[in-house]
């Protein structure tokens, strides 16, 4: 009996050894994959000219032996936000926030219930809301973003951000940020660059979440800004009230103007996605030495959205990327990032 059992035991041992070897190889391979990803700071970017341009720019501007070396104090990179760092379709997130605040505004001022555009917003007719002219949208923004203390606004915006979810992905708006751009922010900062948001959106709104979401502190957010008024509450405590008085329209030419006003240095790299970013990219590229100007083209309807109308994509009133802008990028040496071609992942929650 023992003689017959020995071959079985021997086979069992060989099988066990083979299994252990297979497991060891599996663990080694599994461990190696994250290591390779860790070695690539831009792992969500596909290898190619776009990714290489970013790597080359950082290499030449941080090498002290390079004629393009940029001292750390001057390493400034600016990013548009809507459509560049996070989703802007089908409507800017801040506009969605303002629309959600209309019932509270009407509750405080019941006489507005029968006044346009508040009446249309209260009706819940999304199609009608989508056709509201800019003048009516400005009325809504004014009513929902001003007339309160800075702290009251911050609390209301934070409450909405903590609870509101996008209709398509059913996720908080702050999760609809682009993984490749997160990697890019971290990569620049790891190489001594200061990263700024320069947005046409409301400066105070973006400052509520920029540090938590992007690692960009409030003082490094430049946006469209309304005036404030200094005063005292009943206990004599000083506070600021947000007023319906525009100080900076941080879009188009307002972006380089805002950069000069708030940052004081010309960026060495800028990233945008629409005609509203054109002057910022022109201003960046006009500087001496190595400069990087890049535009994100939304051409991936499956993973995100596709709109232009550049390159024959559908036209859009939100985040318009015209063919003229595309042609300017080609003629001036700007780089157009193709979401479909250059990114192997769009969001951290989706493969």
Description:
The protein contains 14 helices and 7 strands. It has a 7-stranded mixed sheet with strand order 4-3-2-1-5-6-7, sandwiched between helices. The protein is globular and about 65 Å long. Mean pLDDT is 90; it is low at 1-36. The chain is of the alpha/beta class.
Terminus-to-terminus distance: 56 Å
Strand composition percent: 5-15%
CATH topology of one domain: Rossmann fold
SSE sequence, one letter per element:
HHEHHHHHHEHHEEHEHEHEH
Write out the strand line-up for the largest beta sheet, numbering strands in chain order.
Answer: 4-3-2-1-5-6-7
Number of strands: 7
Look at the structure and give the CATH class of one domain: Alpha Beta
The value of Rg in angstroms is: 26 Å
